[in-house]
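quick one, 104 residues, struct below
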Amino acid sequence: MSTRLRPERLPARLRTLQKLCEAQGRRLADLSLSHKLFLNIGEARMGADGSRDAGTGSQADIVDDLRRLVELGYSRIIMRYRGSDAEEQCTQLRRFIEQIIPQV
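---
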């Protein structure tokens, strides 16, 4: 399971994982890849390097993030809302389910 890495940084990590699997006589294809994102629809959160955190921003940004993860071979994506407002959490998750998932 990877977390908090932007999708563009994942290919290098997956190549390392591929090498580790081969060294152990295993296949990367036999693993189930999971990634955890922190959801924030409508407001981009910026990482330490000044770039947008995946899972935040516009609906289109988040759809693109998820599509890239699927293209990289991830079969599970864990979404978590970071805030403490229960009503906003429900709103964010409802929007995610109704508006974003159908586009991925």
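The chain is about 40% helix and 20% strand.
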